[in-house]
């Protein structure tokens, strides 16, 4: 017979939303060279129940593959060594097919055209919590634009 302590722990664990959802959750990957932005996005997404993995640049993400396939990736456009579009292209070359949300603090027309041509959602910094969470949920639910590999 199970102890009362074990029964209570099992009951409490099964009632927590994060315990119930953790088996079907997929991680969100966030790539940004700004430590403050990484910490803020991690806090926001984790508070909404997402598993979050953060990376300081594209090379760090690429060198960590394979990991579990993410629900989506949030990638800053302006990164050291390669920009967010180049990282997107390299991820597709490695068959990482999760949707990408591109964020930028400097949304000039050329960046908008490149993102649009690639089929990427583009969100401007400073990030709106509601806009970002809606984009992540849309990606998680499969309601995102299909990217073109020729971007």
Task: Explain how this protein is built.
It is built from 7 helices and 5 strands, in the order H-H-E-H-E-H-E-H-E-H-E-H. It is of the alpha/beta class and 151 residues long. A 5-stranded parallel β-sheet has the order 2-1-3-4-5, with helices on both faces.
Primary descriptors:
151 residues; 5 strands; disordered N terminus; disordered C terminus; alpha/beta
Q: Helical element count? A: 7
How far is it from the N-terminal to the C-terminal residue, by CA?
Answer: 61 Å
Estimate the strand proportion: 5-15%
Helix percentage range: 40-55%
H and E string:
HHEHEHEHEHEH
- Main beta sheet, described? 5 strands, parallel
Which class of secondary structure composition applies to the elements? alpha/beta
Q: On the 0-100 scale, what is the average pLDDT?
A: 81
What sort of overall outline do the alpha carbons produce when their principal axes are compared?
Answer: globular
Number of strands: 5
Low-pLDDT stretches: 1-23, 146-151
**How do the strands line up in the largest sheet?**
2-1-3-4-5
Radius of gyration: 17 Å
Could you outline the blueprint of secondary structure elements for this entry?
Elements: H1 4-15, H2 17-21, E1 28-31, H3 35-47, E2 52-55, H4 58-64, E3 72-76, H5 84-93, E4 100-104, H6 109-118, E5 121-124, H7 129-140
Parallel strand pairs: 1-2, 1-3, 3-4, 4-5
In short:
The protein is built from seven helices and five strands; from the N terminus they run H-H-E-H-E-H-E-H-E-H-E-H. By secondary structure, it is α/β, with parallel strands linked by helices. The protein has a five-stranded parallel β-sheet, with helices on both faces.
């Amino acid at each position: 017979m199970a102890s009362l302590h074990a029964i209570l722990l099992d009951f409490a664990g099964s009632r927590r939303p994060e315990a119930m959802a953790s088996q079907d959750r997929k991680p969100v990957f966030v790539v940004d060279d700004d430590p403050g932005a990484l910490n803020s996005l991690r806090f926001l997404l984790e508070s909404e129940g997402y598993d979050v993995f953060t990376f300081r640049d594209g090379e760090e993400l690429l060198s960590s593959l394979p990991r579990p396939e993410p629900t989506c990736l949030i990638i800053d456009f302006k990164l050291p060594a390669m920009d967010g579009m180049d990282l997107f292209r390299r991820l597709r070359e490695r068959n990482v097919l999760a949707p990408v949300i591109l964020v930028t603090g400097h949304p000039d027309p050329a960046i908008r055209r490149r993102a649009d041509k690639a089929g990427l959602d583009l969100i401007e910094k400073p990030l709106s919590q509601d806009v970002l969470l809606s984009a992540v949920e849309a990606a998680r639910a499969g309601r995102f634009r299909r990217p073109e590999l020729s971007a």
